[in-house]
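Running this now, will post back.
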Amino acid sequence: MENLPTKRSYEDDSNTPNVKERKKHNTDRYLTYDILRIVFKYLNWIDLSNASMVCSALYFRSWLEVANDEKRTRGGPICLINWGKKYLKVIEKLRNKPTLGLVFKAPHKRNVRQDCLCQILPQSCEIITLGTCGILIENAEMETILEERVCAFLPEIPNVTIKVITIVSKDDFAQYYEQMRLALAKHGINRSKCLLLFCNQAGRALAREAAVRPSVWGGVVKDLYVCNSKNPIHDEKCVTFAYCIGITIVGSVDSWSIVMDDDCNTKELVEQKLESFKNHISLRKHSMGFMFACCERGTNMFNERDVESTIFKKLFPEVPLVGCFGDGEFGETTIPS
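Update: finished.
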């Protein structure tokens, strides 16, 4: 096998201890582009970002170039389920740098800083936590919450703007509504737009006024709060309870929504409606499905578990699906009937 070229040193004389040590251990070797690609394939987003700062002169390529090539092979949304503090370790190993995190879990009244995702996610990532009646991931609907948490992370997407607008006081609604209107109008009428909208019972009326125009997904949950760690005056608890949270997604994305009304109460009707939905849309390489179900659906309606999520995964096997059960959903069918 042909020997790899030896790296030249411009800072050490050939008799210096550093050079002698490198020769002894045969460390003056280049890592080729192909080897770096194999190594970088196994790195999480933090390690990949750190690796991109290391330079190598072989064939005029740099680690930054290899890292960027690896990043281009990634990019899809990520969803996962875990419980206890183990889920923090799992999230630390995410392959894509997240820009938005949604956490679905059991209702509770407090969340201290040492158990918050802001410790391990980038500062630019918005973290929204929803305390709900039930959670779902893929084709598993857990209507009786145990200790599991379902997390969904959207990565940074070129030419896409994600903005989180939070209302923590009823007095803020006028300002909140104006911020949301401007965010949705920012990129003109021809740009794709999507609105994720959540509220607690106290904010239900406010949210209904905001649920207009773009494809909407969301509903009413038990608890709703955002991470407050970006606020320089936050206390030891890094969460803020909210009445309403609106998440606008504007730019180079396609979004569609469909509502299953009360009359859609059998497996056959659900599959028929989702089949029609599938025939009217065209998915991109990276897609994600969100499902918000009223707690009166699920086993209460079908006398069987996992009905709607199973049908969705049958029709869209490659699309990750996450969501929850709540006290009422917001939505609008945005495809031809």
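The chain is about 25% helix and 25% strand. More later if anyone needs it.
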